[in-house]
Amino acid sequence: MPERTIRQEIMALIVDSTMTAKDLSQIIRISEKEVYPHLEHIAKSLRNDKEKRLVIEPSRCYQCGFIFKERRRLTSPSRCPRCRHEGISPPVFSIAKINRSSV
Fold first, then answer.
1. Band of the pLDDT at 87, cuts 50, 70, 90?
2. How far is the C-alpha of 98 from the C-alpha of 94, rounded, in Å?
3. Which residues contact 74 (CB under 8 A, 6 or more apart)?
4. Contacts for 18 with CB less than 8 Å, ≥ 6 apart
5. Residue 79: CA atoms inside 13 Å, Cβ hemisphere, count?
6. 22 and 74 Cβ atoms separated by less than 8 Å
7. 33 CB-near residues (< 8 Å, 6+ apart)
8. Residues 31-57 as b or e (16 or more Cβ within 10 Å = b)
């Protein structure tokens, strides 16, 4: 049986489960920096999928609670725009099935 690619491995890990890029990098044994391009490619691939999509829980400031809802980059921001605190939670990724109701 052929081995899975890194992207296939990432997708298998985050289907119905949430993980940060750091979690993924430790499990797959690649650098955290290497995870982000794979996640971007997965997001693009799933745009045309009618059954699944990449869900990104945005980063949040530990000090004031600011949520980075509008951020397009998948990496964690360096500091909060509201309070300038540098303690920021990393974004969390998962692949969710899209619920389609019968019409």
1. very high
2. 12
3. 21, 36, 39, 40, 43, 56, 91, 93
4. 57, 92, 93, 94
5. 6
6. no
7. none
8. ebeebbebbeebbeebeeeeebebebe
Which one-letter amino acid corresponds to residue 5? Answer: T
Let me know how long the chain is.
103
d(C-alpha 102, C-alpha 7), whole Å: 32
What's the pTM? 0.87
Question: pLDDT > 90: what percent of the chain?
Answer: 83
What is the tens place of the pLDDT at every residue in 41-83?
A: 999 999 888 899 999 999 999 999 999 999 999 999 999 999 9
